[in-house]
Amino acid sequence: MNILVLNCGSSSLKFQIIQTDLERIEKNEDRQLAKGLIERIGSQSLVTFQVSGREAEKHAAPLRDHRAALDHIIRWIIGPETRIPGIESLTDIHAVGHRVVHGAERFTKSAIIDETVIHGVEDCIDLAPLHNPANLKGIAAARELLGADVPQVAVFDTSFHSTMPETSFLYAIPYQLYRRHKIRRYGFHGTSHRYVAYRYRQLTGKTREETNIITVHLGNGCSACAIKNGHSFDTSMGLSPLEGLVMGTRGGDIDPAVLELLHHKEGMSMTDIDNMLNKQSGLLGISGLTNDMRDLLEEAREHQDRRANLAINIFAQRTKKYLGAYLAEMNGADAIVFTGGIGENAAVIRQRICTGLDRLGVVIDDQLNSQMVGGKEGAISTPDSPMKVFVIPTNEELLIARDTVRSIQDLPRRF
Ligand code: ADP
After folding, report:
1. Is residue 192 lining ligand 1, measured as CB closer than 6 Å?
2. Could you confirm whether 253 is annotated as catalytic?
């Protein structure tokens, strides 16, 4: 089966086409056929398309909304020049898998999209006002352009964390606020944490029950997850992706009193404050330079920029603090797993996070660590380190494609 995986952001649309089925999943023989990204939807959009194994092609196009962006993608997929192996017409796309950010308490696993599911995702808009509407636009566009008989599946960022106990997910605010408005911690990046936990099991031969690890996703957004007996036990993002670790433009944990003070001292409205916390904080806020870790590392290295260095140090220390918290919550763990753009590529950040954890059983092999970049997968701890440390490149799209295949198995086949 060829699955079109869609990840719609507020002004972007990422996609992949993945060939997979139950047999390929079993044998780990899923194949990525093509991928692409459209940025700046709503104005002159930047388009990148790539058939696997060939050069990426880039161009600009005026795409006013998600429907126009998906239409552009579909025209490319079936265009005479494109020639994706196994795809000649739209009927060769057998299903669509969507990344949906917030599923709240309603969606504890992936769901075939029908009217009820759409209403359910709409009901979660209050909790994810930036993300869920974009996901819904993608769902509507796919339905319109591919036809209602092409099955679509929603895979939620939150659902992996639905196993968190109350002690992890409740905020210590009046309990009736949870009852009345479902104000609680949900966690995000669930598909990524779930994927790397699955790869960890494959690499080590452990069963799900035996999987006691801390996964650390460090990308533009960052989160850590304590995985106990194969299930999410605690995670650092909360009601929204603002909580927890320091990220590219989000500051993570903060005393709520700061918000009130900002309102009084700077005359900021709640919208201004929300914007500041989401878009102007984190690595960007501290350094005053950039949210991009690669550029920050270069500034710190080449120009000894004090605030670039400070941002990096705060980023590493906060991550370390969460590792400590989760090690205590879980009474130790077998492994720490790094993933995400920074976790997979920035050896120096992994080293800063892991240095000084030897009394907790973490010993990094510096050579292995510096080599484990650019999509490589494996251990970076010394052979006798009591706690293992792995780098495992994430692949949320693959998991979305697999969930899509599994979810629609009971539907009548179209091919
Ligand atoms: P997103 O969360 O948007 O998917 P990514 O997971 O791609 O983002 O992570 C983006 C981050 O990874 C950026 O801060 C980028 O600088 C960082 N990154 C990517 N490659 C490297 C590298 N070689 N060294 C350091 N940081 C890197």
Report:
1. no
2. no
Top CATH class, 206-391: alpha beta
For each of the chain's 415 residues, which pLDDT tens digit applies?
999 999 999 899 999 999 999 999 989 999 999 999 999 999 999 999 999 999 999 999 999 999 999 999 999 999 999 999 999 999 999 999 999 999 999 999 999 999 999 999 999 999 888 899 999 999 999 999 999 999 999 999 999 999 999 999 999 999 999 999 999 999 999 999 999 999 999 999 999 999 999 999 999 999 999 999 999 999 999 999 999 999 999 999 999 999 999 999 999 999 999 999 999 999 999 999 999 999 999 999 999 999 999 999 999 999 999 999 999 999 999 999 999 999 999 999 999 999 999 999 999 999 999 999 999 999 999 999 999 999 999 999 999 999 999 999 875 544 4
Q: Is 130 in the pocket of ligand 1 (CB under 6 A)?
A: no
Q: Which of 65, 71, 92, 157 is catalytic?
A: 157
Instruction: Please give the number of the atom of ligand 1 that sits closest to the Cα of 217.
Output: 6
Question: How far apart are alpha carbons 301 and 388 in whole angstroms?
Answer: 29
For the Cβ of 346 lying below 6 angstroms from any atom of ligand 1, the answer is yes
- Contacts of 27 by beta carbon, 8 Å cutoff, 6+ apart: none
The DSSP result for 164-178, as a single string, is --HHHH--SS-HHHH
Q: Which CATH architecture has domain 2-156?
A: 2-Layer Sandwich (3.30)
Q: Is 54 in the pocket of ligand 1 (CB under 6 A)?
A: no
Q: In the numeric block, which tokens belong to residue 228? A: 């106990």
Domains 2-156 and 206-391 fall in the same CATH topology? yes
Residues with Cβ within 8 Å of 262's Cβ and at least 6 positions away in sequence, in order, are 268, 273, 276
Query: How many beta carbons lie within 10 A of that of residue 122, not counting itself?
Result: 12
Q: Residue 95 corresponds to which tokens in the numbers above?
A: 């299903």
Residue 373 CA: nearest ligand 1 atom is 23
Protein residue closest via CA to atom 7 of ligand 1: 341
259 vs 262: CA distance, rounded Å? 5
Alpha-carbon distance 1 to 17, whole Å?
Answer: 10
Task: Determine if ligand 1 sits within 6 Å of the CB of residue 219.
Answer: yes
In the chain, where the domains are located: 2-156, 206-391
Residue 46 CB burial class (10 angstroms; 0-12, 13-18, ≥19): middle
**Atom number, ligand 1, closest to the C-alpha of residue 343:** 12
Nearest CA to ligand 1 atom 22: 345
